[in-house]
Structure formats: structure tokens, C-alpha cells
Design goal:
alpha+beta; SH3 type barrels; 3-stranded antiparallel sheet; two-stranded antiparallel ribbon; 14% strand; elongated; SEC23_SEC24_subfamily; zinc ion binding; Znf_Sec23_Sec24; SNARE binding; SEC24-like protein B, COPII coat complex component
């Protein structure tokens, strides 16, 4: 029996020698574990209609291509579910303001946000109720 188990032990699918990248790492002691060159994310293979509906993967990316419909299915899959969101990836189009008070719409009480329209240096239009508001703010350059 021992002879049989020793001869079949060499037929294992798992290699006893692991590459350096697959060895366990103690993160409390080893800090520099990321590669020097960035790893590019794979480009999803979608048909043309779906590419038009999806946003850029630089702004929104999910670890799974399909979201499991139940928690039990997600647990059974043993895959991490995560989202990577960069809503303001292009900061050149984002107006930045400063104010001494919190700027809110006088009608619907919505806070000033990146989706409002600035009419001039003192007035802005709410993106929810479309009221034109006066604001005590100034733009940063």
C-alpha cells in the first residue's frame, strides 16, 4: 500500500514548487509587493451595442462580469465582489469652489454638486429643481 501511494503521489495536479508570485506574503512585514510596472486590466470582449451602453472601464469597473442574485450564490462562487469607481476621473472639467458656508439650493435644499450649471461667478442653476440660486462662493483655479 505504501508503494502504491508513493507512486501515485507524483501524479498530483498541484506542484509542490510554487512560483514566487504565488507564495503567501506576510503583509505586516513586507510592504513593497506590487510590481514596478503597472498591470493593465483586461479589456472586456463586448459586442458593439453593449459597448455603447457601458461607461469607460477607467471610470467604473467590477470584479465580476455578472452579479450573483443571492448571497448564497456569491458565497458558493468564492469570488470577491468589488467595484472600482472613479466618478471624477477627468478633473479638468470639474469646477472647484470655496465657500465659508455650505451652499444649498433655496428651493429643494440640494447641496451644490458637480452636476449643477454655473451661470456666472455668483449664480448657479440647481440640477434637480432648475432654480437659479445666488451663492457665496468663489472658483479655485
Amino acid at each position: 500500500m505504501n508503494q502504491l501511494s508513493s507512486s501515485l503521489g507524483g501524479l498530483s495536479l498541484q506542484s509542490s514548487i510554487q512560483p514566487e508570485s504565488l507564495r503567501p506574503v506576510n503583509l505586516t512585514q513586507e510592504r513593497n509587493i506590487l510590481p514596478v510596472t503597472p498591470i493593465l486590466a483586461p479589456i472586456p470582449n463586448l459586442n458593439l451595442d453593449l459597448k455603447k451602453l457601458n461607461c469607460s472601464p477607467d471610470s467604473f469597473r467590477c470584479t465580476l462580469t455578472n452579479i450573483p442574485q443571492t448571497q448564497a450564490l456569491l458565497t458558493k462562487a468564492k469570488l470577491p465582489l468589488g467595484l472600482l469607481l472613479h466618478p471624477f476621473r477627468d478633473l479638468t472639467q470639474l469646477p472647484v469652489i470655496t465657500s465659508n458656508t455650505i451652499v444649498r439650493c433655496r428651493s429643494c435644499r440640494t447641496y451644490i454638486n458637480p452636476f449643477v450649471s454655473f451661470i456666472d461667478q455668483r449664480r448657479w442653476k440647481c440640477n434637480l429643481c432648475y432654480r437659479v440660486n445666488d451663492g457665496e462662493f468663489r472658483f479655485l483655479k
